[in-house]
Structures are given as C-alpha cells and as structure tokens.
User: Fold this.
Amino acid sequence: MTKLSILDIVHDTTVDGSGFRTSIYAAGCIHECPGCHNPHSWNIAHGTSHSVDELLMIIKEDEFSNVTFTGGDPFMQVDGFTKLARKIKEETSKSIWCYTGFSFEQILGSSKLSQILPFIDVLVDGKYIDSLRNTDLQFRGSSNQRIVDVQKSLSGNKVVLWGEDISFIQQSQFSNQQLQVSIC
Ligand code: SF4
Assistant:
C-alpha cells in the first residue's frame, strides 16, 4: 500500500489557491531555498505516514473545499501524490493546485515527475527567491514563481498562466517531445 509522509493537513484555507481548499502539506524538499518559510519541512522523516485512501477520505469529508498539495515539495513523493490526484479526479469534482520548487519545464522534462500533470489543474512553480519576495503577490512568495494553468499549457504547447487574459500568455514554446507525459 502506498504511504505518503505528511506534515500537516489544513482545512478550509484560502491562502493556498482560489477559494476554500484542503491543503495537504507534504514532508520532504531538496530545493533548500534561502529564506524558506519552513526548513523543518525539508526532512521527509518529519512527516507522519498516511495511506492514499486515508487522505482521500479526509479530502472527501469536506464537500465544498477544493484541494492543494504543498509542502515541502509534493514532487518528492510524486508516485503517491499521483495516485491520490488520480483518485480525487475519479471520485470528486474538486480542482487540484500543486506547489513545487521545480519549474514547469523541469517537470515536463522528466517522465517520473510529469506523471502527475494530467491530474493537476494549477501548478505554482519555482524556488522561492528571497530577493524577489513580494508580499503583494497572490498565492506565491516571490515574483519568479508562476501560477500555471496546467491543462491549457499542455494542450497549447506553451505556458499559459492561470487566470490571465489570453493576451498575457507567455510565449515560451515547448517541443512536442517535451510534452510527452508518461503515466506509470
Ligand atoms: S521549495 Fe518551498 S519548501 Fe522547498 S526549500 Fe523552497 S521554499 Fe522551502
């Protein structure tokens, strides 16, 4: 049975994405961003073990909240979070936001990391950079981090930012090869 190491579960938060969300805080992070809000989260052993089904039950208990994966970095446990995300999409109509220190392009370039993308609605990507900290930004800490509409980006072969007008779409293009997503 797949187990996930989880630091915390926060209900009805409004700071980890749009609307009310159940936030799942993953233990484990390799990015070591200077100024990180929670260095305690870097060690995967600091979390407690939960099965995918336990987490799914907790998420489904809240009828109205959507879901956010954060941490730490959920991509440290991408196999387990992919199973959880797949079940959320199969059994609920909830949206999923996911925070990560990896860039969207780094994730696309890895068949292991990109397995989760078909189930993620919005990805807040990139390391936290203290010199780019901006407290006016919504849902992110530094201005290098992007709020990526994952499904529009995958279907359009370019990074599409969440909630922005089409005229603000970033023009970075991906090769078709980069957009191959393999699912275990
Ligand atoms: S990615 Fe997030 S949790 Fe990881 S070191 Fe950077 S700020 Fe901290």
